[in-house]
């Protein structure tokens, strides 16, 4: 990894340990509706990458299609990005990640992009445990095509059109836990205190890290009766706070014994989980499913790190990829040459 | 009765039941003829079934080296009661019929214009072998033994092949050789061997084949080796006949040749995707990130990949796709061959798209063109589709040996590395600085603050900034056309052959024939047949799309041009009409879309027929040519 010191910087902005300011993680100006939850997710991503001092060009951003999938233009302008096709970003990310195992992959999707057209690819992405962070900006509707209910809209939730949704919503977090995702979290675009450390933890995690972020659509689903409006989400929020301590940093805060659970990631980073309930175990799928189920039944929005397997092995491991990225291999490593070919010919005579 | 005669020149067909182990025995038969140095082309005609349905294996022997299908059957070996009636009927008058005579032949299967040879295969195997599975399997080997006597196949070559086949399983060699000998001996004792159709290795009228030390291999294996030699590191696929063996072979070779010596780990990734959409998405993602990636599929998969192909075309991401065509639409006849994805591939996806296509005609070309596909895809930053088919991909073909130039360097196209970015004064992803329509790309992670851009399927300006301005869109797609124009000088040129001298031509019309892929071999043969009848036909074998300008010229220089292909709608003809602005009546289709590969006889018949009906009109149209 190459480290780079930016030459110009705003004198008053603080720098991270690589010498970048938060402005170095900015993207283009957003063209989303003012107040759209997605913009807060972009800001949280920018801050998370700044705080974790990730060189921006070592991140590759990928997305599908939708308002949410447009956001990678609005953060990390120094990173390459790929706005692919609707619902198929998982496959593009899979290909990209096996091609160069040294970059950090960040996928941004919407609830339409993931839970409808992209459902097939999403579960297979989980199944393969691709080393990436995958954020769904979940507003319960199709923003970009003007507000139709999405598959994550809750039963009975009312959109801008005033019609009640008649179908059960798909809970992506429960699905991810069940399908074997190695890191599953839920958050709220309005809760930067929680969202930022979650993104940092997700990016440090080895394997597939999923964050389902409730991200209200101010234009089509922020009305009374919508279960994913700002007001409804705030009213029903049940937060499990956490801190993220990267591997390079000393632990400064003292946590009272029993009040939190510490999870050490493969790179030495530590996640401190402040438990809402005493017997919540973040490394137990059962715990996660029970908690999610009871929150869903009572209309609560349970947020926090729901499940983590800190020892997960990613797709690169499963495929037994050599350490050198595939995209950097040259002729000598790839091409067996004429002698071998001649012996193959011989075997075919 | 007049019997068919022919040294090194006949067609043998085996009629079997799928799943009874006949495939390897039939292969043994064909390979032995190949080892004798006699030109041979075997073809499997198999059902979409694992066990029980009829399957055939057709072996053409041709001392002149014609490797396409001739048409007709001179000797039928039938061990499938289900199809026996049709099989008897399909033998040419004067031909031969070999069958399992354990049970007597039904009277209605008797023809008086063919010769019958009954070998009690079942009875012999029941008597000689104890294990039921062997009784079943070795029946096939017994008939190969009988055929060896009937056709004069070198027996020691057969024995050598058996020992090669069972290397490591020596226990199996003995019973196999025994079965072979039983069949051989039975035929020697009961029939007049050899038949008037037979082999003689001392006669070979195809010096090109003898001299170049041909190999026997299928196109899919050759394509897989092309991917290895071309530097592919990522293969993503979803199983579909007849393309599956491309990735199977890639996997086999990669496990052998692509293990990092330092760590014992893999310098390749193979991903069996959840569907063809994902397979293509993986290829797009990997190629975007600078790896050489490919997928192999057939018609239904091509349809599913279509949205991504449009993205790759518009976002300018290299893609290599090997389409092993079969009979469509939809499942069509999934185990039968066709060349029917031409238009679907050329214009795959919505919006204005055109893709580079390559048309291999031999395993050697499958190898060369796969390597070339990776270079072209990266040079042109666009999808390149290699159009193979079931006949070429899954059947063994005699082919010139694969050759490799150790000085070959992968052509990665216009990619800026960190140093180049550092030195560049300015850079825009979609700026056509060289005027060839091809712009400079960068890979993720290259430089800390230069060269990052956003790849998207949406409209953008030269600086890769999202733009819905009409002018920006038009400039961009017009540049893509310019790039397609550039592609014409990069892709393989058509092959033209010297015309065959015709002593007393029966027509003054200038006749031409265009063909490609597996239509080529039988077309060459048909053209020779017609030349002997007094019809000189110039030929051009198309090897790529976009078409080379010499193709336009070829069409304009001839009065009638036959386009020989294997689909119903004359898709190549349509593509030529469309892209070269040629009047429809200039091009006459010669077609076969029955699922079994086109034969030289069909081609010659259709051309004769067309000449009968169209020459008068054409003469009226071009009086100066008469
Ligand atoms: C194949 C295809 N079908 C339909 C569309 C149209 N489309 C664009 S965005 C979208 C829905 C996006 O919803 P979501 O992912 O929830 O994103 P949001 O806009 O809500 O953030 C649809 C249906 C498309 N782009 N591609
Ligand atoms: S339509 Fe909704 S989701 Fe789209 S930008 Fe506006 S507020 Fe955001
Ligand atoms: Mg949405």
UniProtKB/TrEMBL annotation, chain A:
It comes from the Bacteria. It holds the Pfam family TPP_enzyme_C. Residues 65-213 form the Thiamine pyrophosphate enzyme TPP-binding domain. The keyword rRNA-binding does not apply. This is 2-oxoacid:ferredoxin oxidoreductase subunit beta. InterPro entries: 2-oxoacid:Fd_oxidoreductase (IPR051457), THDP-binding (IPR029061), TPP_enzyme_TPP-bd (IPR011766). Keywords: Oxidoreductase. It comes from Hoeflea poritis.
From TrEMBL, chain B:
Residues 19-185 form the Pyruvate/ketoisovalerate oxidoreductase catalytic domain. This is 2-oxoacid:acceptor oxidoreductase subunit alpha. Signal peptide: none annotated. Pfam families: POR, POR_N. Keywords: Oxidoreductase. Residues 226-393 form the Pyruvate flavodoxin/ferredoxin oxidoreductase pyrimidine binding domain. InterPro entries: 2-oxoacid/accept_OxRdtase_asu, Pyruvate:ferred/Flavod_OxRd, Pyrv/ketoisovalerate_OxRed_cat, Pyrv_Fd/Flavodoxin_OxRdtase_N, Pyrv_flavodox_OxRed_cen, THDP-binding, Transketo_C/PFOR_II. The keyword Ribosomal protein does not apply. It comes from Hoeflea poritis.
């Amino acid at each position: 990894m190459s480290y780079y010191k930016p030459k110009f910087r705003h004198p008053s902005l603080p720098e991270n340990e690589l010498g970048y300011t938060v402005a170095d993680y900015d993207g283009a100006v957003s063209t989303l509706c003012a107040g759209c939850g997605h913009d807060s997710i972009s800001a949280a991503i920018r801050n998370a990458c700044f705080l974790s001092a990730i060189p921006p060009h070592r991140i590759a951003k990928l997305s599908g299609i939708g308002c949410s999938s447009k956001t990678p233009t609005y953060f990390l302008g120094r990173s390459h990005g790929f706005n692919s096709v609707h619902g198929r970003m998982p496959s593009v990310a899979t290909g990209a990640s096996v091609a160069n195992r040294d970059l950090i992959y960040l996928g941004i999707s919407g609830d339409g992009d993931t839970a409808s057209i992209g459902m097939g690819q999403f579960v297979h992405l989980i199944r393969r445990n691709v080393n990436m962070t995958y954020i769904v900006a979940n507003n319960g509707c199709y923003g970009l095509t003007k507000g139709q209910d999405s598959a994550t809209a809750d039963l009975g939730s009312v959109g801008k059109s005033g019609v009640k949704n008649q179908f059960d919503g798909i809970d992506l977090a429960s699905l991810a836990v069940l399908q074997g995702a190695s890191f599953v979290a839920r958050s709220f675009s309005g809760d930067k205190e929680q969202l930022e450390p979650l993104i940092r933890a997700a990016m440090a995690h080895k394997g597939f890290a999923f964050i389902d972020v409730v991200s209200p659509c101010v234009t089509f689903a922020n009305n009374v009766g919508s279960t994913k409006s700002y007001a409804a989400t705030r009213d029903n929020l049940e937060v499990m706070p956490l801190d993220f301590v990267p591997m390079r940093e000393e632990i400064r805060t003292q946590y009272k014994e029993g009040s939190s659970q510490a999870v050490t990631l493969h790179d030495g980073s530590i996640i401190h989980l402040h438990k809402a309930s005493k017997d919540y175990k973040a490394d137990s799928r059962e715990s996660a499913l029970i908690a999610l189920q009871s929150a869903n039944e009572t209309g609560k929005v349970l947020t926090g790190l729901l499940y983590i397997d800190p020892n997960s092995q990613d797709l690169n491991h499963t495929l037994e990829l050599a350490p050198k990225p595939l995209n950097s291999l040259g002729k000598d490593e790839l091409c067996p040459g004429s002698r071998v070919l001649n012996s193959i010919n011989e075997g075919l005579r | 009765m007049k019997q068919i005669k022919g040294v090194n020149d006949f067609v043998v067909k085996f009629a079997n039941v799928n799943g009874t182990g006949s495939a390897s025995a039939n292969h043994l038969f064909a390979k032995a003829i190949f080892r004798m140095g006699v030109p041979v082309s075997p073809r499997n005609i198999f059902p979409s079934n694992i066990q029980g349905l009829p399957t055939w294996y057709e072996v053409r022997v041709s001392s002149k080296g014609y490797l396409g299908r001739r048409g007709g059957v001179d000797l039928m070996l039938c061990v499938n009661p289900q199809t026996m009636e049709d099989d008897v009927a399909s033998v040419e008058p004067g031909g031969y019929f070999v069958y399992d005579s354990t049970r007597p032949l039904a009277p209605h299967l008797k023809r008086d214009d063919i010769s019958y040879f009954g070998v009690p295969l079942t009875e012999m195997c029941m008597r000689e072998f104890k294990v039921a599975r062997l009784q079943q399997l070795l029946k096939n080997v017994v008939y190969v033994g009988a055929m060896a006597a009937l056709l004069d196949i070198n027996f020691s070559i057969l024995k050598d092949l058996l020992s090669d086949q069972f290397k490591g399983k020596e226990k199996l060699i003995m019973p196999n050789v025994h079965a072979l000998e039983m069949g051989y001996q039975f035929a020697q004792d009961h029939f007049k061997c050899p038949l008037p159709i037979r082999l003689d290795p001392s006669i070979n009228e195809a010096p090109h084949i003898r001299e170049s030390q041909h190999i026997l291999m299928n196109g899919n294996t050759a394509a897989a080796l092309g991917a290895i030699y071309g530097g592919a590191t990522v293969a993503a696929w979803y199983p579909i006949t007849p393309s599956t063996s491309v990735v199977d072979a890639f996997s086999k070779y990669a496990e052998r040749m692509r293990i990092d010596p330092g760590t014992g780990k893999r310098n390749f990734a193979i991903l069996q995707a959840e569907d063809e959409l994902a397979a293509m998405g993986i290829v797009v993602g990997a190629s975007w990130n600078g790896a050489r990636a490919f997928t192999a599929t057939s018609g239904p998969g091509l349809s599913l990949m279509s949205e991504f192909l449009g993205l790759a075309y518009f976002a300018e991401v290299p893609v290599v796709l090997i389409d092993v065509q079969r009979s469509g639409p939809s499942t069509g006849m999934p185990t039968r061959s066709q060349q029917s994805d031409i238009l679907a591939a050329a214009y795959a996806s919505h919006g204005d798209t055109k893709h580079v296509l390559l048309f291999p005609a031999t395993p050697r070309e499958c190898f060369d063109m796969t390597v070339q596909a990776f270079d072209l895809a990266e040079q042109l930053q666009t999808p390149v589709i290699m159009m193979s088919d079931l006949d070429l991909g899954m059947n063994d073909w005699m082919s010139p040996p694969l050759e490799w130039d150790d000085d070959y360097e992968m052509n990665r196209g216009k990619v800026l590395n960190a140093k180049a970015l550092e030195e560049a004064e300015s850079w825009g992803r979609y700026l056509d600085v060289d005027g060839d329509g091809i712009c400079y790309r960068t890979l993720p992670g290259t430089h800390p603050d230069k060269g990052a851009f956003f790849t998207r399927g949406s409209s953008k300006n030269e600086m890769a900034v999202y733009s819905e301005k009409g002018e920006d869109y038009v400039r961009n797609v017009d540049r893509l056309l310019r790039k397609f124009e550039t592609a014409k000088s990069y892709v393989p040129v058509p092959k033209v052959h010297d015309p065959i001298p015709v002593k007393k031509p029966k027509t003054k019309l200038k006749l031409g024939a265009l063909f490609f892929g597996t239509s080529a071999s039988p077309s060459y043969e048909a053209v020779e047949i017609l030349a002997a009848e007094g019809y000189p036909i110039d030929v051009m074998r198309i090897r790529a799309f976009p078409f080379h300008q010499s193709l336009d010229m070829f069409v304009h220089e001839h009065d009638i041009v036959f386009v020989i292909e294997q689909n119903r709608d004359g898709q190549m003809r349509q593509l030529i009409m469309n892209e070269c602005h040629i009047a429809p009546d200039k091009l006459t289709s010669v077609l076969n879309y029955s699922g079994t590969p086109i034969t030289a006889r069909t081609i010659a018949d259709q051309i004769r027929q067309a000449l009968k009906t169209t020459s008068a009109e054409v003469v009226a149209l071009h009086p100066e040519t008469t």
